[in-house]
Amino acid sequence: MINLHSRDGYTFLLSILFVGAIATAVTGTMLLLGWLALRNSDTAERSAKAYELARTCAEVALEELFEDNAYLGNEELSLSQGLCYILPIGGTGNENRTVCTEGESGGTVRRLEIILDHILPSIEIIAWQEVEFFTSCSYE
Question: Which residues pair with 90 in a beta bridge?
Fold first, then answer.
């Protein structure tokens, strides 16, 4: 009989160790998933800020171009949320112009490329798109 009771103790001890290992694995997984979700939301927030910065620069560039069609761009704007860049404006005169902007927030960069049909009497946009790499503008 003594051997039977001591085996029950080992079985209980092994059960506790097994449940503890599972609980530790579940806790570790939950911590890892929480950390990844936090990191993902931070990246999404930086990306949204960078997009808004690129949009802000695009609006500034379009306004400057509307006021003076000889506007060349090639500016850096420092805003409270980060930096945005207006690349050199493509084309000359009133027709077939290209505006490219970049927004940067926390190392995340978003780019907008805007192709204009004409500027006056009102700006007519052919395409306004987010791009990974500029095709109509050049870096300087």
Answer: 98
pLDDT for the residue 10: 83
pLDDT at 46 > cutoff 80: yes
Q: What is the pLDDT of residue 5?
A: 53
CATH number, residue 58: 3.30.1300
Strand segments (E) across 10-107 = 75-79, 82-86, 95-105
d(CA 26, CA 29) in angstroms, rounded, equals 5
Provide the CB-side half-sphere exposure for 89 (13 A, CA): 25
SS3 call for 103? strand
Q: How many domains does the chain have?
A: 1
In this predicted structure, what is the pLDDT of residue 81? 85
Report the chain's mean pLDDT, rounded to a whole number: 89
* The residue to which tokens 């560039």 are assigned: 61
Helix (H) or strand (E) holding 109: strand 108-118
